[in-house]
Please model this.
Amino acid sequence: MLGRLAIALVVGAFGLVSVGTGLVPASAAASSQDVTSTHAYLEANYEVLHSVVSGWPADEAKVKALDQKIHSECPSAGAGSPQSEEAQKLSTEVVGALWATVYDANAKAIQRFVKKVGSLRWSNASIAPGVRHYTQGLREMVALQVPNLCGDVRSWSAVGFKAAPASTEQFDRHVEAIEVKEPPQRLLARYEQASDKGLAARVAHLANRYGELEFSRGQSDWNMLLETLALNQ
Model:
């Protein structure tokens, strides 16, 4: 579909998935800080997932507001456009616009998550840098601005649907460069305790629920905007 920008959409770039439901006995070498940090990370993951899942109707309302704005300002601006490599760039920009819209809708929850996990420490030197890289990606996605879709599609139309606007290419490169990658599950799972089993199960349930919403709504939202703009996938 869209390669790296496949519509895992709506918080899909969030990477907000469970640390894991399969509990592995903590290593004898695990420090109390390892255990405490892992529990805190799991709690923060639950909180942000709960916020995202329960707030889904509000996210959808913002996506629909974006669609209505486009419908008001430039309906069918891409009418007659070809199905080409340049068209893919505009289609990818639409994905980024959806990401920007939903990340903005969930900004407070994400920022709380980033604040809570940003200071956590583990004895495994690979985990904390991974968490920092992850939270940096989340910050960049929260800061992402909705592009001027109407202006870009009109500019593309004005040149006979040949080269996509420079602003489109710049936006696409920026979004594709943002990496939101959660630290490897195997590194964190070893520090989970038996007492975390219930919490881990709740996280897994929310992650699954999010996946269902993502699958059912993500593609639909993308198609809705493409149809309003009269663009091809």
